[in-house]
Every structure is written in structure tokens, then in C-alpha cells.
Amino acid sequence: MENIQESAAPGVLSIVGTPIGNAGDMSQRGIKTLEEADLIAAEDTRRSVVLLNKLGIRGKLVSNHKFNEHGKAKYFIAELKAGKNVAVITDAGTPCISDPGNELIKSAVAEGIRVTAIPGACAAVAALSISGFDLSTFQFYGFFPRENAPRRKLLEQMRRGLSRTWVFYESPKRIMDTVEYFVQEAVPCQICLCNDLTKLHEMTFRGTPAEVREQLLEKGNYDKGEFALVVELTEEYLIPKQEHIVSPEALLVDKIVREGCNRKDAIRLVLADEGCTYSKNELYAASLRLKELLE
């Protein structure tokens, strides 16, 4: 009789939150999960080994940073299919929140592998929780853009959004430049700027962009530590959503007839109109519908 070996049941992929500054924030469930994991996928093994050594956990770390994430996902999926349990951690906080991990999770979901979350610290949520701002809705963006063109585009997006409150991450080397941008653009808002959350010398700067800039200058060595920036726009600064009065097809036909232009130029001319309430994608779709009607 032939021996029939049953294939091992797939392992579990655990997304484990780690402290963002205070080791005491590591949960007991998180510790147990890391102890029981066969492999620990870490953003930076050099930083994660410090935490794991404190926990007495050794010999399980495998790098999973943004530059090798796609290729490593195949490796971890193979290990999970072989029945091994894999835990994902980041340098600090919750994985996948502006950190690596998504590629592996998407692959695991596609393969029918169980993915579970072990909640822990998250700098964005911690900053929001102490901001005192309207949190009925909020937007998380990640790191604030470096260049002015993307910044202007984002500011327009913020004004047209459904939420007054936005939260960003920022590096210590760029924090003053970011705050200065809000000052230069005269953005009517309140800021809650959190530095080194949960650490011994945690600091919070509050007020208008100009007031926060002055507080940073008073501090002096503000270019150290990590920052979470929470911004609450004033109601008056938001651009109310406008109801469409005329169909996009009618607007395009009007431009084509008046200007004697083609559909592509008509889209450009309609978008240039300050009263336009349609997006470029909506006008392009309308242009295709017109093309179908005329053919």
C-alpha cells in the first residue's frame, strides 16, 4: 500500500504592532505571537533585533523592506503554505501604515491564507487621539509631499475633501519646511504637531501654523525625532461640493461649436473655466459618449 502524506495546513500571517518609542507598549498578545512565529518579517532587522533581544526572541528575523518586498513575498508565501507561521513587524508602530507589508498581505489573501492583526501602537492614531480636533471623519496621507506642485495639488484635495482633519508623517529634517509651507500659503487651520510620541521627552506643539513655527524655533533642536502632523482646516476654507447644472456632454458640444475645436481641446477649455464642476475623467467619459453618438 502506498503511503499517502497529508499536506500541512497553511500557517497564519500575523501583522504585529510594535512600540513607537516606549517598550512598555508592547502587548502580551504581541509578544506571544512573536514567540510562537516560525519567521518574523522585519522592515529593518538591525532595528528590530534590539526589541526582540529585549523580549528574548532570537533566530527568526528575515528582512522584508520596501526594496525587496515583492520578491520576498513569494518566499514567505511558500513558507506559509508549508505550514509555518509568519509574523510581520515594522521599525515602529503598525505595519503597512506608510511601511512595508502590503505586498505580502495581498499575496496571502489571494492564496487563501489566514491573515490576522495583533493591534499595537500607531503614531498617526495616537496623534489624532490627543489633537482635540474634529475626528468624526479624518484622512491619513502618509508623508507630506516634498515638492511645491504636489503640495498645491494636495492642498486643493484637502479643501475639496469630506474631512476637515488630516494627519501626516514628517521627518525631522523637513518638518520646519512643511510648517513653513502652511504659513506661506496662509492656510486657515489649527495644527497639533507631535514629536517623539510615547518617549520620555515627548512634545506637542499646538496652534496656527505661524504659532507652531515659533514654538519650534523656541525649542531650538527641533530637527530630531519623528513627527506626526495633524491639521484641522476651518469650515470656511473648505470648497463646498457644487451640484452639476449642465451635463458634461452639453458643455463639450458648446465649446466645440463656439470655438470650432475638437473634443480633446473642448475638454481642456471646459476644465479651464473656473465654474467647471466636472473632473477631467468625467469630461473624458462624456467625450467618448459623444463620439459613440456621432459615429
Task: Describe this structure as you would to a colleague.
The protein is α/β, with parallel strands linked by helices and 295 residues long. 41% of the residues lie in helices and 17% in strands. It contains eleven helices and ten strands. The strands form two sheets. The chain has a five-stranded parallel sheet, with helices on both faces. The protein has a five-stranded mixed sheet with strand order 6-7-10-8-9, sandwiched between helices. The radius of gyration is 25 Å and the shape is flat. Mean pLDDT is 91; it is low at 1-5.
SS elements, strand count: 10
Oligomer status: single chain
Mean pLDDT: 91
- The helical percent reads 40-55%
From the alpha carbons, calculate the radius of gyration and give it in angstroms.
Answer: 25 Å
Strand content: 15-25%
Largest sheet: 5 strands, parallel
Broad structural category: alpha/beta
Give the spatial strand order of the biggest sheet: 3-2-4-1-5
Which descriptor suits the 3D outline? flat
| Count of helical stretches | 11
- Reading the helices and strands in chain order gives EHEHEHEHEHEHEHEEHEHHH
Low-confidence segments: 1-5
The span between the termini is 71 Å
